[in-house]
Design brief:
By secondary structure, the chain is an alpha/beta fold. The protein has 14 helices and 18 strands. The chain folds into two domains: 283 residues, Phosphatidylinositol (PI) phosphodiesterase (TIM Barrel); 83 residues, no CATH class. Helix 12 packs across helix 13. The N terminus and C terminus are likely disordered.
Amino acid sequence: MNKHSHRLAAVAAICAGLAGSSTLAMAQGDIYGSRQQALPAKVWNTLTGDAPIVIGHRGASGYRPEHTLASYELAIAQGANYIEPDLVMTKDGELIARHEPLLARVDLNADGSIKMVNGAPVLNRTDSSTNVWQLDKYAGRLTVKTVDGQKVGGWFAEDFTAAEIRADIRAQERLRDLRVGNNAYNDKLVIPTLQEVIDLAKAKSLETGRTIGIYPETKHPSYFKNFTDANGLKRMEDKLVEVLHANYGNDRNAPVFIQSFEVHNLEYINSKTDIKIVQLLNGSGTPFDDSRSYAELASAAGLDAIKAYADGVGANTNLMITLVGGKLGSPTQLIANAHKRGLAVHGWTFRAENVFLPNEFDSSADPAAFGNMAGQVKAFVDLGMDGFFTDQPDLGVAAVSALAVPEPQTYALMLGGLAGVLAVARRRKPVQAV
């Protein structure tokens, strides 16, 4: 029996033979070498037959300002299997957790100049995640840049050292007019580094006795490659791999997925590490560094190309079930086609507020009120989705628990066996580095 067969046998033993026990010991085949509660006996319609993993999207960003240790810690407490840090770079080459290079964004006029009202720049109220716009000492760093071909204005992470960001720049709720309750945490939470996010995941793994994985995303890697090349810094991908190897080793069974919307940076990462890789697929448009559209990449031929360098795809929900008149329409073949190629499918993004839900799951006309996210999750899990990103991990965990037969005592302690089994799904040849 080869090593892949041994791994499959171990996971099968966990799912079938240990379903009635309360914990899994290392000697009983736990692929992470830690103690976990047994998985539900249900065989799911996923790539591995395991329950879908729940990924805390920017932490528990429905309840705390995103990409803060408070948000990640809450996601873990709510039962998330993975937490997701989006990564950008500082002036001195540190990786920090932010959704975009912009620490705060301002609106622009049609000619690309900064829009001003009464002598002050107009804050973009859906894409500003720190208080930097309120700090007079940094007023001179407001600027306009071109990111992936689009002009944007604001304060950019790469114009600040990690020490400056640590000193007095604090997180704010990005969706400040929708998630108004989260504004109570504004100006109190520091901007964490990737290492701090890893340290939290490791500490909570020891504290809870379950493995907490991380799911880092390289944001705008082509943009940051231009920045690092111009300033003699280590490129984002190399820095990421260095940090991950220092913490987890070069191990494809590590509880880590690396993701990106670009293509060639993932091919480059694949040549540097055995850690699992996920190609993100948007519902429209084209990767900045590739001529193929996301629709083409989601096709059977596109998935054939992806499996050469990745272990899975992170798919916009519309690529799995189309929206028709604001409601869920017909399922596509994306999940089935991906599974045929040994690729996992992780869906994004599941959010509880009515404004984000398909219309049939709305609870009222109030955009901020919670609707039936569990109903939306069920539609995708029934298709075989292997995991999903959610702003409300507690609701995601509860939705999966409700689908378990028999229902587990606490799905929050379920370990995503997907991470170990995916070792059989792909062993691809490295591509030429770019």
